[in-house]
Structures are given as C-alpha cells and as structure tokens.
Here is the input.
Amino acid sequence: MPPIPGSGLAKGLAVTLRTMTKRTVTAQYPDVQPDLPPRTRGVIGLFEENCTVCMLCARECPDWCIYIDSHKETVPPAAPGGRERSRNVLDRFAIDFALCMYCGICVEVCPFDALFWSPEFEYAETDIHELTHERDKLREWMWTVPEPPALDPGAEEPKELAAARKTADKLRAAEEARRTAEAQQAAEAQQTAEAQQSAEAQQSAETRPGTDAEEGEEGRGQG
Here is the structure.
C-alpha cells in the first residue's frame, strides 16, 4: 500500500508538538556536574608501570599526537652464568589533546593495558601548548579512571586474574617455605648451642674433682 501523501510531514509535526509540550530542563553546569555514561571518553590516563615502549600506540595513532622517547639499558643476568639483556626505559610519553580526535585506537591496541579512558573532561586551557600532557600529567589522570564493571555471575574468570593469583600463590608458598627453613635452622642452631653448653658443663664437672684432689695432695706433701 503506498504511503498517504503528507504522512511523513504529519509524523514530523507530531514529534514537534510532543516536544513542545514537555517541560524544559536546564543543566545547571558547572554548579551541578553532568551524569556521564560509564564509557565516556574524556581524557586518556597512562599507567606507566605497564608501558614497555613498544611504540604501537604511537604508530597506530591516525593524528600522530602521541610522542614517546626512550633509551636502552643493560640488565644484569638474573642468575650466575646468565647473559645480560637490554630493555627499553621510558623517557617521555606525551599526548597532544589539541590534535587528538578521541578515537580510542591507542587504548584498544595497547597490548599491556597502559592506557585507559577517564571521564574527566574539564581540562580546557587558555594556551594551546598546555593541552600537551606529559607523562606526569597523564599519570595523574589515572586516579580518575573508574573501576571496570563487575563480571556476570556465570562469567569465566579472566585469564589475567587467574595468572596473577597463580603467581601470588607461588610467591606466598615460597615465602612460607623460606620462613619454615629459617625457623628450622634457628631451632637446629639453638639445639646445637644447648648441646655444646651441656657438653662444656659436663666436661667442667668432670675436670673439677680431679683438680681438687691434686690440690689436696699437693697440700699434704707440703705439710
């Protein structure tokens, strides 16, 4: 059935009339902060400890607004006889939010979870150069990153959490084994010391009567 001529116009006017009859609500910003969605893209925070200077975020950024500088350091071998290794050390990590288009590619491609979205959006500046946030400023934004949503009751445990728990259990077991070994060594040392003191006391007791007898004989001989 072909549409009735003018039906689209009538629907549009109906929407307009419904909107006109609603009460207008003014957002009292900045006195009242807006209720932002949980996935709001405000500013990017940097968790520096997770950054390995892989440069993947800077290479994938379509605006080339991420600046990273680093240098290599030699790491001594972890065990005797091992070989030295080199690792990248982060010197500079900056994001120019005057160029950033908030696409989120850098956050998505980071393989080590070093970049996070924060809902904070109040960082306007009077000087455009101040919109380039260095790593110290990016680290401060991490305190405003919301916690991840809770998993569904029937969801599987994340592999990262399971690996972290396994590592923590290994470290805890190693620490308990070390403490047990130290306690056992301390007990053995105490037993050895007590046995040595007992042997010295017994030797001293055995030596003392003979000495007294010799002193008595010497006294009688002099008399």
